[in-house]
From TrEMBL:
<dbReference type="GO" id="GO:0000978">
    <property type="term" value="F:RNA polymerase II cis-regulatory region sequence-specific DNA binding"/>
</dbReference>
<dbReference type="GO" id="GO:0005634">
    <property type="term" value="C:nucleus"/>
</dbReference>
<dbReference type="InterPro" id="IPR023082">
    <property type="entry name" value="Homeo_prospero_dom"/>
</dbReference>
<feature type="compositionally biased region" description="Pro residues">
    <location>
        <begin position="369"/>
        <end position="384"/>
    </location>
</feature>
<feature type="region of interest" description="Disordered">
    <location>
        <begin position="214"/>
        <end position="252"/>
    </location>
</feature>
<dbReference type="InterPro" id="IPR039350">
    <property type="entry name" value="Prospero_homeodomain"/>
</dbReference>
<keyword id="KW-0238">DNA-binding</keyword>
<keyword id="KW-0371">Homeobox</keyword>
<keyword id="KW-0804">Transcription</keyword>
<keyword id="KW-0805">Transcription regulation</keyword>
<feature type="compositionally biased region" description="Low complexity">
    <location>
        <begin position="354"/>
        <end position="368"/>
    </location>
</feature>
<dbReference type="InterPro" id="IPR009057">
    <property type="entry name" value="Homeodomain-like_sf"/>
</dbReference>
<keyword id="KW-0539">Nucleus</keyword>
<dbReference type="Pfam" id="PF05044">
    <property type="entry name" value="HPD"/>
</dbReference>
<feature type="region of interest" description="Disordered">
    <location>
        <begin position="308"/>
        <end position="398"/>
    </location>
</feature>
<feature type="region of interest" description="Disordered">
    <location>
        <begin position="1"/>
        <end position="45"/>
    </location>
</feature>
<dbReference type="GO" id="GO:0048468">
    <property type="term" value="P:cell development"/>
</dbReference>
Length: 673
DNA sequence: TAATTTCCTG
DNA sequence: CAGGAAATTA
């Protein structure tokens, strides 16, 4: 069973750029650069789901895929001559639809993969042939000397295999290139025209980013440009979508995905960066973003279906950062009390890092082994808390290479879900659906139950579950844990749903408690306060209904944070003392044990407390960490660590250094959105 | 005594 | 990160 974390982990490893010439780098135990190994296979994470001929999202286009697939089975040779994009133009010289083009793209991606596989299989087969030949030859000259000649032959054979593989790779690359050109021809021109047209039309809604559709837009100019275009396309689609029947269902959804995916592809090519920045990767990102938004739309549609007598207000499409918007005050929400009383209890394994990108201009630490920095993804500036909206909020962020962080996407979807479901009519226990069957296996526990089924439409689980994968073990486990944790509470609050859509999984549950979002917030709070009192915590988690259990859990979190913090400090202090290199940073000869932001220790801390790296680590925290490090170091050097309670002295110092937590943390939800 | 913190374990 | 035990604090 794939746990959600597995899925995320795998995804991250799947976003490797399809660049056979990628320079090997990093590759520590965490394998932060999945594509670093030149021999590793390229993967296509979400794309792959889409691209499978039978893959769920593409199912409606399965015909097209199957057609191509069969043709491929019939003869590869003709295919080769025809060229990759040969059929991008239809019979009448007419351009194929976006869907067809995307299908072509997917098909070609499959071809590339197949080529690789076949090359491997073929290579094996050839080895077998060669071996047979060798046997025959050997019969004729049993007594002849073999040693050196065989060695030479072996070498030649391997060279030949290598060359063939290389050729096939080149061929695949060429096909990709051809396809990219075709894509450009098909969409780049159109996109450029549309762009021109729209701009001449005087559209100025540049800042009105639809965060629902574009959960996170890296703030680099490159991505902003793409986002802008995508927004425009989306606006257009929205307009036409409104004219269509809302209940159109999956067809519209798929069209939307394909259409915007095409626009994204066009965007990349318009800027001539398709190849320069790794078109496949960008395409993967585009698709992922599209999937996110499309899924959100589908969810909204489904919900609209079941809440027709409780129509969703326009605010159903808020930005993920709602509540921490520019005004700072959470916008009034019709169901504010409800959504606050029913925060997310999404329990997700936390090992969801996606170290995908090598840092830019990463400086080597002389003392410590080179490690990549954590994932460097900036959410849209609007999503950043005021304190992190600096222009250099991500000092080592490569401008144009920022994959969509899966966890962030996940969070976005969670929040969308919470908002959407908060508009559902209240459903209570004891209704027609109240059975252990649903409680056990159905991912829609009590939410599906309704005491007042006559007044509210019951929430048909199967309908919603259609096309949605049920989440497996991991979340179920947490569900049970949560249930245990909430023993003695009002049963009515213990409701929630699990949802999974492909590899994007959701778990939503209403009820008071701490969610991963709260955990994230707590971690960020740790940057300011290492020893927050329970009262402090209560003021900074207004959306949490505190009771003894929740309070102790939150306190326990901070205890764990401290533990981790001090363990790292001690570890690095000991290492520095042992290695006699009291400089953790570069240029720190004059300032021993300087904790620069380019050090491994900083990276570890940042990774732990700011995993998605979307928050600017306060300088004060770095200073305090540095201080703690020095304290540990001197204690170790002076032998004070032989005292059993030597750490307490340090703890006392550190606990006095808490600084006030920014007001942005007083708002409910994650400070990042 | 309750709340909090640390230490240890899984 | 959670749970539990022990130590510490108010």
């Amino acid at each position: 069973m794939d746990s959600p974390s597995d899925l995320f982990g795998r995804q991250s490893s799947l976003i490797s750029p399809f660049d056979p010439h990628i320079t090997p780098s990093g590759g520590g135990h965490g394998a932060p650069y999945p594509g670093a190994n030149p021999s590793s296979q390229p993967h296509y994470p979400l794309i792959h789901h889409l691209l499978q001929p039978g893959g769920a999202p593409m199912r409606s286009r399965g015909q097209l895929h199957l057609d191509r697939y069969n043709r491929e089975e019939e003869g590869m040779e003709g295919e080769k001559e025809e060229g990759m994009g040969g059929r991008l133009v239809g019979a009448g010289g007419k351009r194929l639809s976006g869907a067809a083009l995307v299908a072509d793209w997917s098909y070609d991606m499959m071809r590339v993969k197949r080529l690789r596989l076949e090359s491997l299989v073929f290579g094996d087969g050839e080895i077998g042939l060669e071996e047979e030949e060798e046997e025959e030859e050997e019969k004729g000259r049993r007594n002849a000397e073999r040693g050196n000649r065989e060695k030479g032959r072996e070498g030649r054979r391997r060279r030949r295999e290598r060359e063939e593989l290389k050729e096939q790779l080149e061929e695949a690359r060429g096909r990709l290139k051809t396809l990219q050109e075709k894509v450009w021809k098909a969409f780049g021109e159109r996109s450029a025209q549309e762009e021109e047209k729209r701009w001449s039309g005087g559209e100025q809604e540049e800042d009105e980013i639809d965060h629902l559709s574009l959960p996170f837009i890296p703030s680099s100019p490159h991505f902003q440009g793409i986002a802008k275009q995508d927004r425009k396309a989306e606006d257009h689609e929205k307009r036409s979508e409104e004219q269509r029947n809302v209940n159109g269902g999956g067809g519209g959804f798929l069209e939307g995905v394909l259409k915007r995916a095409a626009v994204w592809m066009g965007c990349g090519v318009v800027r001539g960066e398709w190849e320069r920045f790794g078109g496949e990767q960008k395409f993967a990102q585009a698709l992922k973003q599209e999937l996110g938004s499309a899924v959100a739309r589908v969810i909204d549609r489904v919900l609209r279906l079941y809440t027709q007598n409780d129509p969703l207000p326009p605010s159903i499409h808020p930005s993920p950062g709602e509540g921490r918007n520019a005004g700072g005050a959470p916008p009034p929400h019709p169901h504010q009390e409800q959504s606050e009383a029913l925060p997310l209890i999404t329990r997700r394994p936390d090992n969801r890092r996606n170290n995908l990108l090598p840092p830019n201009n990463r400086t080597k630490n002389t003392l410590l082994p080179p490690h990549p920095f954590p994932p460097l993804c900036q959410p849209h500036p609007a999503l950043l808390p005021p304190s992190s909206r600096h222009k250099d909020s991500s000092p080592f962020l490569p401008p144009s290479s920022c994959p969509l962080p899966i966890p962030l996407l996940h969070y976005t979807m969670q929040q969308l879900f919470t908002r959407s479901l908060s508009h559902l009519p209240p459903l209570h226990k004891g209704g027609i659906m109240n059975s252990d069957v649903y409680m056990e296996g159905n991912p829609f526990p009590n939410l599906l139950t309704s005491a007042s089924s006559s007044s509210h439409p019951s929430f048909p689980p199967l309908a919603v579950m259609e096309g949605l994968d049920r989440l497996d073990g991991g979340l179920q486990h947490h569900h049970e844990r949560d249930g245990g944790m909430r023993g003695g509470r009002d049963g009515g609050m213990d409701s929630g749903i699990y949802l999974g859509l492909g590899s994007i999984s959701f778990f939503w549950r209403s009820g008071e408690g701490l969610s991963p979002c709260h955990l994230k917030k707590a971690k960020l709070m740790f940057f300011y306060a290492r020893y927050p009192s329970s009262n402090t915590l209560k003021t900074y988690f207004p959306d949490v209904k505190f009771n003894r259990c929740v309070t102790s859990q939150l306190i326990k979190w901070f205890s764990n944070f401290r533990e981790f913090f001090y363990i790292q400090m001690e570890r690095f202090a000991r290492q520095a003392a042992r290695d006699g290199a009291p400089c953790l940073g570069r240029d720190s000869r004059e300032t021993p044990l300087c904790l620069g932001r380019d050090t491994e220790l900083y990276r570890i801390l940042n990774m732990h407390y700011n995993k998605s790296n979307d928050y600017q680590v306060p300088d004060r925290f770095v200073e305090i960490a540095e201080l703690a490090l020095r304290e540990f170091y001197t204690a170790i050097q002076t032998g004070r660590d032989s005292d059993p309670c030597w750490k307490k002295y340090i703890y006392k110092i550190i606990c006095k250094l808490d600084s006030p937590v920014p007001d942005s943390f007083r708002l409910p939800g994650c400070p990042m959105g």
